[in-house]
Amino acid sequence: MRAWLNGKLLESPDEPALSVLDHGLVVGDGVFETVAVDDGQPFALTRHLDRLARSAEGLGIGRPDLGLLREGIDATLDGQDLPFGRVRITVTSGRGPLGSPRGDHGLTHVVVTEPAQKPPRVATIITVPWPRNERGALSGLKTTSYAENARMVEAARAAGASEAVMPNTQGHLCEGTGSNIMYVLDGTLVTPTLASGCLAGITRALALEWLADELDVVERDAPIEVLADAEEVVLVGTTRDIQAISHVDGRPVAAAPGPVTQRAQAIWAREAAKTSDP
User: Fold this and answer.
1) Of 153, 105, 102, 145, nearest to 128 (Cα)?
2) Cα–Cα separations (whole angstroms), residue 104 to 34, 92, 93, 128, 150
3) C-beta of residue 176 within 8 angstroms of C-beta of residue 125
4) Which domain of life is it from (predicted)?
């Protein structure tokens, strides 16, 4: 693991470096991205940095220095042997007061890169009752205000699952804590619309783009209970890629991976192999 902060490569990730008054720590006032690393190369980095900038501007903290962040990513990747890993990019509003109003000390830019294990091709999920607010101030933004997600994923782990999937305030299927969800109904691959409040996932966008020519894929909102009728269930995300789900709330899914999921996984592998920065 290697860490970088505001232009400086740290001697150790445990080196004291961040102010205790940084608003990312005080009130969770920041944005982040996690980027998969395959054979030493970050995947879809430009798309991730573009979304980071959109999230930061949507949060109202200003535009991050993307060139500086690229330098940080290069610095943390340099010298590491990473067959598979991840880069965590975090930008906060910087040093501020002990309260919600922001300071004017400039943004904090952080990059941490570490080796990681690839998630299994098949996993299990639970649904949780706590809704995503599709009309909230942070809807659609990838912010560091992740306490709700941490609570949900710990509930999943306690139930022996790898991810928690939530509804929105209308009871519609929305997303996982760190993933987007898709399911197969009558042979069609369905995923919630962005109006549901789910994050505009990078893997989700690429999957919709790459799969559309060969599979029947639609964006459609439905009650979260639709998962009970799904022929196949899939999670998509930065490190998961396209992951089959074998059980939802302890109930087995008919096929995992089913024929549509297997075809989607094959298409993804083929297209992802063409370039590291699609």
Assistant:
1) 153
2) 26, 12, 8, 39, 29
3) yes
4) Bacteria
Report the alpha-carbon distance of residue 82 to residue 79 in Å, rounded: 9
Q: What's the Rg (C-alpha) of the chain?
A: 19
Provide the whole-model pTM.
0.95
> What are the pLDDT digits (tens) for 29-61?
999 999 999 999 999 999 999 999 999 999 999
Taking alpha carbons only, the member of 156, 158, 171, 205 closest to residue 50 is 205
Q: What CA–CA distances, in Å, run from 202 to 9, 46, 134, 207, 249?
A: 27, 10, 19, 9, 26
* pLDDT band at 235; cut points 50, 70, 90: very high
**Domains of the chain, CATH where assigned:** 2-115 (3.30.470.10), 122-273 (3.20.10.10)
